[in-house]
Amino acid sequence: MTQVGIIMGSTSDWDTMSHAAETLDALGVAHEVRVVSAHRTPQRLYDYATGAADRGLKVIIAGAGGAAHLPGMAASMTHLPVLGVPVESKALKGMDSLMSIVQMPGGVPVGTLAIGKAGAINAALLAAAILALSDDGLSLRLQAWRAAQTAGVAEAP
Ligand code: RP5
Predict the structure, then answer these.
(1) What ipTM does this complex have?
(2) Which helix (H) or strand (E) element contains residue 122?
(3) Which domains does the chain have, with CATH numbers?
(4) Which of 15, 28, 31, 101 has the most CB atoms at less than 10 Å from its CB?
């Protein structure tokens, strides 16, 4: 059953958001990927966010660049945890994305990650950690992923 929904404002965000999908793949977490723009496809966003919980999704990862209102709007229409990934923009290097995702007024949280690839990977890891609270198998896979990362760090350059 699909547990994580990865949404992004544009196909141009896929270079970044594919890292979230790859990380979920590595952890064996079923997910779906959709382009859902807050300003270009508002009805699609409404339908996606309001229907997400009923379809069985547990976590939404939302990536957007520039005036990145997608994660906040998604969070406003679902009680599911929403993790926001600021996509690096050309004009302001993703600082605009970061500020517009992280500065949610109190009451509608978006768990905001780092700009770009690191944020996409970490959003997937956080989504997995959330799901692992009630999934022992996933918890073990997540611990193994972390152990492999540790084992891969060289003692010297
Ligand atoms: C946002 O506008 C998207 O999330 C994307 O990061 C940015 C630019 O979109 P495109 O013009 O590349 O489609 O909605």
Answers:
(1) 0.96
(2) helix 117-132
(3) 4-151 (3.40.50.1970)
(4) 101
